[in-house]
Amino acid sequence: MMMVLQILGGFVLTAGVLLAAVPELVNRFKGPNDTPQTVPKETGAAISRRIRWGWVIAVGYLLMYPPIGMGVLPVLVTLAVAGIAGIMTARLMGLMLDGIEMRHLFRFAAESLILGGLWTWFVKLSA
Predict the structure, then answer these.
(1) Cβ 54 vs Cβ 85: under 8 Å
(2) Residue 10's pLDDT band (cuts 50, 70, 90)
(3) What is the distance between the alpha carbons of residues 49 and 98, in angstroms, rounded to a whole number?
(4) 3-state secondary structure 23-49
């Protein structure tokens, strides 16, 4: 069962990374009367468009790496780490593909500090 979840998580993670890399794929499947959304000219808006798919990446991470324990704390920490890691992955892709914008760069740095703090706290509690 665990192997099936990890394979499913790999597919979800791949789909999330693909959609974060090319968000215009979703616009191609709209109806005939809908006009597809254009790529924003502003760097911040273009990066934010990719970050929306970070939650799909987070679900893929969560399926691939389930909580290490059955208590409330491991489940909450795993949810937080997977969510932040998914958004960080999409934000980093946006920074690399769309260009650097200071607001998103600072948010990426803050998310890195939060993720490092959560991981350190969880490792100390697990030991």
Answers:
(1) no
(2) very high
(3) 10
(4) CHHHHCCCCCCCCCCCCCCCHHHHHHH
**Contact partners, residue 59, CB within 8 Å, separation at least 6:** 9, 12, 16, 82, 86
Handedness of CA 93, 98, 99, 104 (dihedral sign): negative
Picking from 122, 115, 119, the residue whose alpha carbon sits closest to that of residue 73 is 122
Using a 10 angstrom Cβ sphere, with 0-12 exposed, 13-18 middle and 19 or more buried, the burial of residue 115 is middle
- pLDDT over 70 (residue 29): no
Tokens (6 digits) for 14? 């791949």
